[in-house]
Known about the structure:
Strand content: 15-25%
Number of strands: 14
Helix content: 10-25%
Radius of gyration: 21 Å
Distance between the termini: 42 Å
Shape: globular
Oligomer: single chain
Structural class: alpha/beta
Amino acid sequence: MRIFHSADIHFGVENYGSIDPKTGIHTRLLDFSDNLGRMVDCALEEKIDLFLFCGDAYKTAFPTPTQQKLFAQHMLRLQAAGIPVVIIVGNHDHPLSFGKAHALDVFSYLPVNGFYVFSKPDLVIIQTQSGPIQVVGIPWPTRNFLLASQEHRFKTHAEIAAYISDKVGTIIQSFAQQVDTKIPAVLAGHLTVSSGIFSGSEKCAVYGTDPIFLPSQLALEPFDYVALGHLHRHQNLNKNGIPVVYSGSLERVDFGERKETKGFCSIAIDFQDAHKKTSYQFKELPTRPMIQIEAFLSADKDQTGQLITEIEKHD
Length: 315
């Protein structure tokens, strides 16, 4: 069974670019859309069985019609080819307000089959061209409804984050016990793992405001692969066991990611014999270069001229 895993597309990021005169669309939005299109092209060419998108389709929960159109066009290409699409709601997709739809809610109501949107934890069995697969989806755990309870109203951010981590971990364990070990199973979530590295920094995710999960809470025996979104750097946090993988973002969001390669993950689950075997590879996509130039200016010379001279040394 062949699966593609991606996350953190962030349509709406418009750092450093300009308006493309041919399309009227911001060049950075085109960068992200082009790479999403390249990944979809590859999925159609390889005739994959399942497409996992693990959250943060947009920069904000209120995308523009142009951003929605571009994202939907790519997703509908997969659906038209008969490739099931799993969509996990990320923190940037969620409005965090009672009664408001999240940015990906429209895919739950389209009059077509093939979209599986996880806005709350669930276990779904999806039929693919290579047989059934079980997907446990865990969206970004929001705290706004929890704070409405008198029991939690006066807890600190760290206490609430720890409480959510514990409860979501229990939910994952409960779903793991329901998984049929004879057929493939993946855990897909938009979460922060304790040993994960944020882009542009070697600091671990220990800020206290996000619910933090240990790799051992996710790499549970029934799952063949754990697909994650939220951290923009591609990384496998459980190299000697069940893969716990952040695919990373499809494009560089800012200069903190200027040295990182971007792409998506291609997973293969072999379940022809009694023992299932999972392997994956990271497929790199072309990204717009971000070049950091450090210039030391002399006070007795024209400063703009000095900067231009330094810039001209680079492509």
